[in-house]
Amino acid sequence: MMKWLHIMASSAWFYRFSGQAIPWLMSAFIVLLLIGLYGGLVTAPADYQQGDAFRIIYIHVPAAWMSLFIYCVMAMYAVIALVWRIKLAEVLLISSAPIGAAFTFLALVTGSLWGKPMWGTWWSWDARLTSELLLLFLYWGVMGLYAAIEDKRTASKAVSVLTLVGVVNIPIIHYSVSWWNTLHQGPSITMTDKPTMPMEMLMPLLVMAVAFKIFYGLSLLIRARAELVEREPQSRWLKAVIEENNDE
Amino acid sequence: MSEFIYMGGYSFYIWSSYSLALIILVLNILGPSLKHKKSVQQASDIHLLNGMKSDES
Questions:
Q1: Of all residues in chain A, what percent are helix, strand and coil, respectively (each to 5)?
Q2: Are B17 and A60 in contact (CB under 8 A)?
């Protein structure tokens, strides 16, 4: 098992495997995105309270889910990087941060674009919105810290610690709508209760959520490949890969 | 069709959200792809240089 893990964690194996996986992920993502967009913009009926404005949900909620999900995955990589010092975990950790930041930013801006017509304001300093904004700063902090430290092994260690410290913010975001009285509505979908949304509204949301997850995998692999090459330009495995490509 | 674009009066909010999402998704593919291409190019230059050096010695 450990041996298998070490093979999978090797740069050469990862680089080859990800190169093959990217086209498949790309196709799956585009198909799901088109289905989700069609469902969300065309087949889902307008909401009886919010009219067509509710359609922002198909971007906003999957993006917000991803902003939390990616941070949790980063925390997992941080533990692996700190405990076993596996280089690939460091690379995956730092490559996740810009994608997490992008989804957090998207969730915040679409939230604002939804808040204006529904609440009458672009922004309010309530618990959900403020803790999500803090998440964006955490992602930016991780990226800035990594960029600021010259030695990438040291930088990874610092970034792992920062990521783990920031984990406290995740349950705060998640429970903010239940703990505090906020402008933001409570969760419309939970693991335990039956969804209150009708099927033709719910399905596109789930499809978009899966599409965004696949997108994360796709963008992560491309970023991690670039990061690996940048970190180990002199390595023998990369030399072999380049020679292979030149022969083709 | 125009009713679809009108979105019950919420067209600005809807289409801003969806276009921003699309821009962010595209940038998160194109940006890293270009970075990857550039770093592979740099690495292959290094290997080419190293190769020439070892040929001389």
A1: 80, 0, 20
A2: yes
Which range marks the domain in which residue B46 is found?
A: 2-56
Q: Which residue has the tokens 């933001």?
A: A184
C-alpha span between A42 and A29 (Å, rounded) = 19
**Contacts B53 to A, Cβ<8 Å:** none
Q: Which residues in chain B are closer than 8 Å to A234, comparing Cβ atoms?
A: 43, 46-47, 50
Element (H, E) at A111: helix A87-119
Q: Cβ A109–B18 below 8 Å, yes or no?
A: no
Backbone angles phi, psi at A202, to 5 degrees: -75, -40
In degrees to the nearest 10, what's the CA dihedral of A106, A113, B5, A49? 120
pTM (two decimals): 0.92
Q: What is the mean pLDDT of each run of 10 residues along chain A (248 residues)?
A: 67 91 97 97 90 94 97 97 93 98 98 93 91 97 97 95 96 88 77 76 95 98 96 87 80
The nearest CA of chain A is from the CA of B13 a distance in Å of 5
The Cα of B19 is separated from the nearest Cα of chain A by a number of Å equal to: 10
The interface predicted TM-score (ipTM) is 0.89
pLDDT tens track for A1-38:
666 666 666 888 999 999 999 999 999 999 999 999 99
Q: Residue A182: which region, alpha, beta or left (left: phi > 0; alpha: psi -120 to 50)? A: beta
